[in-house]
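request received
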Amino acid sequence: MHAIALHTSQFGRHLELLAAMYRLRRRVFKDRLDWSVSVSGEFELDVYDTLGPTYLILMADAGEPVGSVRLLPTTGPTMLADTFPVLLGGSPAPHDERILESSRFCVDTSLVAEQAPNSLNRATFILFAAMMEAVRGARADSIVTVTDTRMERILRRAGWPLRRIAAPRQVGSTMAVAGFLDMSEQTLHRMYEQADVNGPVLVSSDLVNAAA
Amino acid sequence: MSPVESIFQEFIDAIQTATNADEFERVATRLTQRLGFQRFAYLRLTGETPMLISSYPKSWTSRYFQLGYQQLDPVVRRARAEHALFSWGGEASALAGNREQRRFFDEATTFGIRSGITVPIRSGFGRMAAFTLATGDRDLHPELLVADGKDLVHLVGLHFHCYVAARLDVLSASKLAVSELTQRERQCLAWTARGKAVVDIAVLVQIAPRTVVFHLENARRKLGAASIAQCVAEALRRGLLS
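response:
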């Protein structure tokens, strides 16, 4: 299992992969979680996908995408600043070349869980490790994200705890919380160990663009 | 890159630079030609005012809205009901539908819009849009033109929709921002969310019922909702009432 980084400038060349990822997102965010997102046919997209994102796409060994996450620079509009400022609790939203915002994190449990015991955890750890590698590749040092308290627990157990910006708040049906995920070599190597991999999991390296 | 892949990359590269309706029109016109069609139309129906970006003849589009054809247009009706790309026009629709609709297609044909394919798009809370590629060429079969590229057309339509929302919506930033609701608007919405009627809220907040309606209507407009119920749902989703 590994992850592929895909930047806007490479969409055409990887159209099939891109389509598969938008399909995965529709299944997770529209069909399962019933978020208020834009869909057409089998695909899901929102306005933040227009801001030059880098997608990290988690590939199963059989070759199909089973997870993904979206990374955006925080120098432009962000979900935290422009959609969920209520989660800032009065703090200023980060706008910094050294901070990326992650969103739309998902691992398709139905696709992954059937493969082997513990494979869901492993898939999640590998996608976490890919996020850290992407941060390093973009010469950034942390991620800011809007997530929920359930995911916060998963992150803590994975040894990558969320540094909260403010207390969680009820948003719709979830307890939403915003915070930072700091990148360090030590955290990354611990993630490799938990995921049972020897080294880098992220393929393709056009990630400097993510912070541009 | 395959032809489909390079068409998509060219489209993505171009649309990133579009900042106004004319530029969006140029980007989609280029794509339309690359795919072998003649005209395109992006129609968004949100609340009371429809939004159109298209390369259809202006004489046709102004007539279309003047006569409220968006209510009658079988393509729009179908786009509201279906999720997947569909083709329309040609022989089949000359025979289908009621007399009014057949006359509508006849009229569209005189403006060079004979057949096409349409991608339905759904946004949150019942908002919809449709991205259409059309042709006036009798011998062209829209379905065949995109036989290899259905995913491509879906992705193009959806990207066009999101780029337009991100770049052209005046409300784009405020649509997303929380502070846009006044305290009174939040109060009235919060009571509505708890099942209170306008007359009850008037008593609770100590303002006239008419003023309650005024605040609720303002909130509804700000959140781009079609009804007060939708407005409450949207406000809750964005955490505006906590």
